[in-house]
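Sequence in, structure out. First:
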Amino acid sequence: MVLKLYCPQNVTASNGIVALVLAEKQIPFEFVQVDLASQQHKTPDFVAMQPFGQVPVIDDDGFILYESRAVCRYLAEKYPDQGPKLVPAGLKEKARFEQAASVELAHLYPAVLKVAAEVSAKQRQGLPVDQTVIDACLAEFPAKFDVYEGILGRHRYLAGEELTLVDLFHLFYAQLLVGAEIMTRESRPNVTRWWKELISQPAWVKLKEEGIKGTVN
């Protein structure tokens, strides 16, 4: 049975990262579109798979998994010899990978969640977004990327010399950070080099242009 990916077609945050890993690892999958506008993700059938009523979800021959970071780790470790490894195998290399993953989740993601909460809450209420809230959240990023500048000055990617899921996880923030022009400042050439490489990956560019499409029906 071919793997199924449940999510909207547009490449937004978590949906896009899972689709990117599927593309990079050349994993065949069936795309099952979930219509968020009609609350399809809140139906009993969907909540039976994802109890929080969120996307994306995968069904790998009856094995149901949600939470995009967990899904990406599962795919990378199930198919280690297809495409880039994305998760290191060595003990110390994997420890460094997990360290970088913890940094992303603990230091960057909370600020993004604040922005998302402000935007989604106001949209639901039909109210204008408070730009001062967004600006305050974005103000947290420069100091964090000053630290990244040092890390990326020592090795090509966040967890070492090879691209890993940790790097790809930062594409969660692509639209937000590109719009705010945080990632391409002259004062952080290593961050700029790393970021430009991430967003110019052929598989990512294709996803952004075409949306998420399954490879099998």
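Second:
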Amino acid sequence: MHQHLELIAKRTKPGRHAVVVMDGAGWHTNDIAADIPNLSILKLPPYSPELNPIEQVWSWLRQHYLANRCFKGYEDIVDACSQAWNSFISCTKRVVKMCSREWAKVTEL
């Protein structure tokens, strides 16, 4: 996780500050980005899936592709997940709508 955060920090433009929203998973500790000066962690409150955009993504994937199915094996699962993901990302407007929040809009300086 720390390496991932370092990569985000490297891609953050000079003079900008990245904020990564995390849920309450055990490895999402408060000090995980303490040594990364241009990145902060915003932890969501417990039991608040409506605030976490990835929860809406998982819900869409289940509703449209992955729920109530039987899989023949590992490769069938991977194929179904790949098809579901590719379908999800094929519509940029859907991705933006589901993964953005009005209260988290970036304003240009």
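Remark: The chain has a mean pLDDT of 87.
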